[in-house]
Amino acid sequence: MSGVVEVRRWERVGAHSHIKGLGLKDGKALPVAAGMVGQLQAREAAGIIVNMVRSGKMAGRAVLLAGPPGTGKTALASAIAKELGEDVPFVAITASEVYSAEMKKTEVLMQAMRKAIGVRLREVRKVYEGMVTELEVRTGKHPYNPYQQVPIGARIRLRTSAEERGFNVDEAVAQELIAKGVSRGDVIWIDAETGRVTKLGRC
After folding, report:
1. What integer pLDDT is reported at residue 13 of this predicted model?
2. pTM, to two decimals
């Protein structure tokens, strides 16, 4: 009986996946740090670029990294992107992808630019939040079953530390109030646009 030699499975990663940053300490490059080795002056210059981007002085500008093949231009660009944080998109393309017979050069560059665009959306919603001091649900006859009562609206008063206000809500909000089991003393908020009711707790 002999043991089976297991072949170690290698997971293919990118050529620069080990880079975590520029490896700077107080603006000075460490010899070996954050996956970067050597190129001390180039890394310190890249650190100046990172500081300019963070301060908003590089908007609408480009950085050209020139040098022979294999000198670490892409590694430096990847380190700059990692240093700026996860919110900064980084797309690496090779010259063989640009000079392709299937697609025009401008189309390849446009696709790369679209991938490198980061969009951050911030939504502002108007909500009413407070403790329920009064809740009165109005009911009416069901349109198809006159013997069944269904909510057709409600009047609710919400109190905060600053003020107390009353609202007349429609059928959809009234049904949500009943479905969530809202009663006096509950702390809720109501989305003014969608009418969504969220129960936060109880006072």
Report:
1. 65
2. 0.50
